[in-house]
Amino acid sequence: MQRIAVVGAGAWGTALANAAARAGRDVMLWARDPATVASIAAKREAPRLPGMKLDERIAATGALADVAHAQAVLLAVPAQDLRVAATALRPHLARGVPAISCAKGIERGTHRFMTEVVAEVVPQATSAQLSGPSFATDVARGLPTAVTLACADEAIAAALARALGSPTFRPYHTTDVRGVEIGGAAKNVLAIAAGIVQGRKLGASATAALVTRGFAELARFGRTLGARSETLTGLSGLGDLILTCSSPQSRNFSLGIALGEGRAPQGKLAEGAFTASALVELAQEKGVEMPIATAVAAVLAQKLGVDAAIESLLTRPFRAEG
Questions:
Q1: Contacts of 247 by beta carbon, 8 Å cutoff, 6+ apart
Q2: Which of 66, 179, 210, 257 matches a 20 to 30 Å C-alpha distance to 195?
Q3: Catalytic annotation on 187?
Q4: pLDDT tens digits, 171-204
Q5: Which of 187, 201, 268, 303 is catalytic?
Q6: Cα-flanking dihedrals φ and ψ of residue 205, to 5°?
């Protein structure tokens, strides 16, 4: 897997392109915006990661046909845009080429996970998922980061991990695709809740309780959908939850802080804002109780105020831990 393509030149796609190049791969980075392609070609810099130099192994293009010779494709587009991107990619992807979703979410309306969208739209591809505790700037700079790479075919998962891995970017491979996807999707929603606690200045004890009980929800949902315990407590589950619930670098945590402070959210896309309703609806379909996620979805839909949502959680009946 010497030739790697990255579809999407946002902060995350650019960071992954740098990581793949650092691993010694030849990288084709596709950007929708011609100005982004020109910036990369002229200054070796992508607009979404200003000041971050791109590796010389990275070539930029605005034509999806240029990824046709890739031996693996990383789909680094937002979760709700994945179907459109995969549909456009389909004519250019050879049979059996791994198509790795790098978004963390659940598709609204269909309640499909990301690999399900890829398998449906690009049936000739081998779908896989990349997730885990990672910020784009850290990965782009080459700071030590560990993630999880999931594929139903263990040999392909291991080969992808070797192809993308380097001393500072370490993918651990697994065949538990659904477990990896659940961790990535649910933790974004729970991070909004953690941000609300921070924004409301409810204290460190409340944050610890929120994250712990949030993980209980994530694990309960995951087990119902067949995820393995070691995946839920691993990098793509508990690890990503801890990172996302503790740093303003997290877009979801920052969104929660704004909501908690009573400010209008501003800035970059927060995947959890789009995933919340889909997560809660899917949990209800499966009979899984997720009170924290449900409260977040209600706040985002403006069906419940922040204080009312907090009260609804604090006045729940006492019960055994589990």
A1: 135, 253
A2: 179
A3: yes
A4: 999 999 999 999 999 999 999 999 999 999 999 9
A5: 187
A6: -65, -40
